[in-house]
Amino acid sequence: MIGNSLTWLVFIPLVGTLLILMIPREQVNVIRSIATGTSAAALLFSLFIFAGFDRSTSDIQYYTVTEWFNIGFLQINFEIGLDGLSMPLILLTTLVTTLAIVASFSINDRVKEFYIWILVLLSGMLGVFVALDMLLFFLFFELTLIPMFFLIGIWGGKWRTYASFKFLVYTGLGSAVMFMTFIAMFVKGAEAMNYQVLSFSLLTMADIYANPLNPDVLTGTVKGGLFLGLFIAFAIKLPVFPFHTWLPNAHVEAPTAASMILAGVLLKMGGYGLLRAGFGVLPDQAARFATLIALLGVINIIYGALLALVQTDLKSLVAYSSISHMGIVLLGMASFTTAGMQGAIFQLVSHGFISALLFFMVGAIYERTKTRTIDELGGLSKSIPILAGFMLAAAMASIGLPGLSGFVSELLAFIGIFGASEELIPAAATLGVIGAIGIIFTAGYLLWAMQRTTFGPMKEKYGELIDAKPMEYIPMIGLLGLSLAIGVYPHLLSDVINITVIDLVSRIGGG
Fold first, then answer.
1. Which of 266, 358, 373, 426 pairs with 510 at a CA distance of 20 to 30 A?
2. Number of CB atoms found within 10 A of residue 118's CB
3. Any idea what the Cα angle at residue 271 is, between residues 267 and 277, rounded to 5°?
């Protein structure tokens, strides 16, 4: 059972999908119960795996490898496992998805199809975070695109068709670049080993590119090109300027549950893939492009924050906020310090909780007021004080208020960039100062939005709104509670990722 735990985890959602397929579409409550139970089972299973996770080693744990198919000269394996990088993201995935399903009980149109796509999406996301074979990683990565395309395209807003196709085109292009880069990595890796090793394993690739039998094959130009290919592929997903334009459209048009998963988990696949495949296989090239990565991180922080400042739609503001906060991930990565790397991973997890909560709160407000236009709102704290209070708490977490998880991730990322080697990033301190200005902008647009929506005089038409419903307390308390827990006691997360981060930084040559 232990050896196959990850396999069970990945395919539990597909079992739930098959069960829902056998249920008549009229039995809505049964379908919702199966979807919730399946996701909750995946969450409990991830907690079971977490309980057995060894925090004292950076080795791959729960490792399973099975021959998938063999065509003589090439063998592709079902190779999965996890370490301190993937473990927290697996917990994030199962938790956010379970809470998103609870948040979607108001969906009444084509309920059966909605939950089928949610569970298929869950399986794909979990597969991405445990896959150690490049082709397997690619297939799971692709598996997440189609469900989100339909979730936006069927259950989205007025411009859902445009948003869903833009999402598919952009992320599909990223997948194509990733696939071609993986093939090139395999071909060059096999050539570097004089064709004695033919494997798509990320672990094997890391060894090959570190110690090739024929080093003349893996020139700096070749490895640099491969790293840039991976960077572009995952930058689209994260997203990184200038590949970010699909995200606001997707968020604004997506239903609440899809927005929670998109911001809470899907964006994190970009950061995870960059660390796992880019930094993990080509650490020397990651260091080579450190300045570029840090610069793009600062651009993301400032550009996303400035665009958020001018938004008139509350959901669009939160979407641009996500772009800004993903810049902190890049900045922490580029520092190649233990603190910076921890900050990047903290930000991936912390932003997952906070952004999911923010999108849930925006959805709850829209459900009651039928508008997301900031100027049309106001004084909501008088009519729906509980929802307004949680909205304010989520904004404070996003700003980085001490005691909440956003503060820890930002603190570590900026400690990292200010402590970065001048040889890797000549203008590290300058970039850190500019990035810190973006944090001030973050406080500006979020506090301004809160002031215009929840405070001030209440509009008469909002005087009879219904405050938080019993089911809404589950995602609100769950997501805010986790942000508070990590903010007050960061060791909950640092204990899991610390050894893996130290190993990664040592291979890059950072400090």
1. 266
2. 27
3. 130
Q: Which residues contact 322 (CB under 8 A, 6 or more apart)?
A: 247, 251, 263, 267, 304, 351, 355
CA distances in angstroms from 482 to 2, 45, 350, 358, listed in the order given: 27, 18, 9, 14
Check the CA dihedral 279-284-285-288 and report its sign. Answer: positive
Q: Do 153 and 160 contact (CB within 8 A), yes or no?
A: yes
Please give the pLDDT value at position 1: 46
Structure tokens at 105: 């009980």
DSSP string over 79-98: EEEE-TTTHHHHHHHHHHHH
- What is the reported pLDDT for 197? 82
Q: Tokens in use for 419?
A: 């402590």
Distance CA 98, CA 438 (A): 32
Angle at 195 between CA 229 and CA 230, to 5 degrees: 10
Q: Which amino acid is at 355?
A: S
144 and 266 in contact (C-beta within 8 Å)? yes
Q: Which amino acid is at 102?
A: V
Question: What are 83-117's pLDDT values in tens digits?
Answer: 999 999 999 999 999 999 999 998 998 999 999 99
d(CA 300, CA 321): 10
Positions of the chain with pLDDT lower than 70, given as ranges: 1-3, 72-73, 509-511
Q: Could you give the count of Cα atoms lying within 13 Å of 73 in the half-sphere of its Cβ?
A: 4
CB 341 within 8 A of CB 329: no
